[in-house]
Amino acid sequence: MDTKDINLSAELKKYFGFSKFKGQQEQIITELLDGKDIFVLMPTGGGKSLCYQLPALISEGTAIVVSPLIALMKNQVDAVNGLSSDEGVAHVLNSSLNKTQTKQVMDDITAGKTKLLYVAPESLIKEEYVDFLKNVKISFVAIDEAHCISEWGHDFRPEYRNLKGIIDKIADVPVIALTATATPKVQDDIQKTLGMNNALVYKESFNRANLFYEIRPKVNVDKEIVRFINQHKGKSGIVYCLSRRKVEEFAQLLQVNGVNALPYHAGLDQKTRVLHQDKFLMEEADVIVATIAFGMGIDKPDVRFVIHYDIPKSLESYYQETGRAGRDGGEGYCLAFYDPKDIEKLEKFLAQKPVSEREIGLQLLNEVVGYAETSMSRRQYLLYYFGEIFDPVKGEGALMCDNSQNPPTLKDATKDLKKVLEMIKVLGEKFKTKDLISLITGKESAVTKSYKLEQTEYFGFGKSESDNYWKSIIRQATVQDYLKKDIETYGVLKISEKGQDVINGKSKNIFQIAEDREYNLAQSK
Ligand code: ADP
């Protein structure tokens, strides 16, 4: 399509009533209409939907929108149909339709009425649909929640993995993939699986400057939460627990303590769930105590706190769940309780899973531990996880976390950093943190033996300090961009440019670290 002739701002106003594009929406839409493949990484609430809805509405033919949840599809379809004066420009094709309804949808597409067709990946796989879609005019394909493609995402769907082959069968049209999960690993996986290595990538910052992050040791957790909620009386908040039983128990405990709280989990019947959700949205209940089943698609702008009774299984989940606070830009307090024993429980649970799932699960947990135990800016740590380098002094929201407000005493570890970097370089940048720690502290492992690391000068050089000390050096060196974790092997440490400067003696940076918090946690119990 020749985009020069289109006044996108006028179309935005006409369909959505907005007078300005948000962020990079306009460039994204222009490039998509120009026939380019596009990859959009934007936090929740960034305005991703409009990036495919608007071009779909003004393009010839039907845009296929792949979306993982039937419930979400329905909301979106209703929303789009509310936009246009033409009746029914958006439809769904999924297992919830009967034969007559399916035929109606197909007829609408053939007649050129349907601008957006929402499909679940498992429906798209069906041969009859592929054959049908092959023979109608398709404008482009949008893949929403594209992180579902990756096992490293928080919501892996095996059906998403075959999408590329199916799309190729249907039409040779541009593809736009969108997600709010932006770890470099997931990003890489999505692009490879969809054959979108040459796509234009639009990434917006994942920094939520109005959120305050705090981690507390999980001691007297019930009391602590009750006290916190009483200090925030009348404000909306969510308390996440890992188990349904805990949700029930804790909701009751809050009620007994005079908090207007309700439980929410997938074990409750549909009616109760909807009722509790609505009461929360309508402000008849202040607090919802929930499992992770609560939240997808919930858009309550004035949630003032999100509490994690149990630490989540991955930093993505943590980010998504805490992200439900302060959507309106106002206060949003994110408080999580951490106990290394909870991690052990989750690890045991993973031990029963198939190998690949287990490995991934453990790596994700490792990042959670790193985050919970770090003494550096939480925002810096979290954003690093999403591939962003954040300035903990001048960055937006720099002071908004426990560690930044109450900085731990720091120790100059520049020499130790240099030694570690040199060692990694000399040994050929082949090892992961765990093996490097064995090497530094002089403990034999399968890896140290097979590479004969016992015979190097590095074996045991750091014996006088604890494992945790060296772990923090490596962790913080990674987060501060002296080391890079290799994406392919997920975890092998490589020297960055900044790290190379330290090795060459060109760097004037002072590298400081604090005593590891894990130690303090163990003592506080
Ligand atoms: P995402 O899918 O990235 O989570 P949404 O597409 O749901 O985000 O958009 C988040 C909110 O921003 C919605 O309420 C939407 O109507 C609004 N929005 C999107 N684009 C604009 C815009 N250009 N101007 C004003 N509001 C917008």
From TrEMBL:
This protein's cofactor list reads:
Mg(2+); Zn(2+)
EC assignment: the record states 5.6.2.4
What GO annotations for molecular function exist for this entry? 3'-5' DNA helicase activity; ATP binding; DNA binding; four-way junction helicase activity; hydrolase activity; metal ion binding
The UniProt record lists the Helicase ATP-binding domain at 29-200
The alphabetical list of record keywords is: ATP-binding, DNA damage, DNA recombination, DNA repair, DNA-binding, Helicase, Hydrolase, Isomerase, Metal-binding, Nucleotide-binding, Zinc
User: Which residues does the UniProt record annotate as the domain Helicase C-terminal?
Assistant: 220-366
The chemistry this enzyme catalyses reads:
Couples ATP hydrolysis with the unwinding of duplex DNA by translocating in the 3'-5' direction
Q: Does the keyword DNA damage apply?
A: yes
GO cellular component terms attached to this protein's record: bacterial nucleoid; cytoplasm; replisome
Give the enzyme class: isomerase
GO biological process assignments: DNA recombination; DNA repair; DNA replication; SOS response
- What protein family is recorded? Belongs to the helicase family. RecQ subfamily.
Protein name, please?
A: DNA helicase RecQ
Q: Which organism is it from?
A: Epilithonimonas lactis
Q: Which residues of the full protein are shown?
A: 1 to 525 of 736
